Amino acid sequence: ERLKRRPAAKPIVALAAAVAPPPTGVIYVGHLPHGFFEEQMRPFFEQFGVVTRLRVSRCKKTARSKGYAFVEFAEPEVARIVADAMNGYLMFEKNLRVHVVAPEDVHPTTWKGANRPFKRINFAQQAAAKANRPRTDAERDVQARRLLSAEARTKRKLADAGIDYDYP
Predict the structure, then answer these.
(1) Which of 7, 91, 125, 145 has a CA that sits 20 to 30 A from residue 138's CA?
(2) pLDDT tens, 69-97?
(3) Which helix H or strand E contains 99, and what residues bound it?
(4) Strands (E), the chain
(5) RRM domain: from which residue to which, for each copy (predicted)?
(6) From CA 137, how far away is CA 135, in angstroms rounded?
């Protein structure tokens, strides 16, 4: 049997252009003062226009702000206006550094965790849980063997030093 020819597919570029999201404007906000976090930034920047995404960069260990943030506006023109108006703005004894980030310079992971509260990882609690977990019989045997070999090594060193010591 003869195969029927399929009609030519639409070019992918045309489809991508039709589905492409509308252009947005992204700004970098540096030299953030302490106390000017997500909850305070969103209403502050919404006075200029619609804020679609906002992310304050934070330390994974302590969850403290690293002192800079990225804000995405629905309109690129709004981002330019905000950058012009807010660059050098004195806030809580700090001069904000604000500039527009070109769309091609916005890293794909920039918005990872945006619009969500930062969840602090308690590394001490994780380490304690790992150290205090129940051991298998094989792990306990290895632990006992290491302890006995360490004791034997210590006794040998004491004997080599001429010290007669026996501990319980």
Answers:
(1) 125
(2) 999 999 999 999 999 999 999 999 999 99
(3) strand 97-101
(4) 25-30, 51-58, 65-73, 90-91, 94-95, 97-101
(5) 25-103
(6) 7
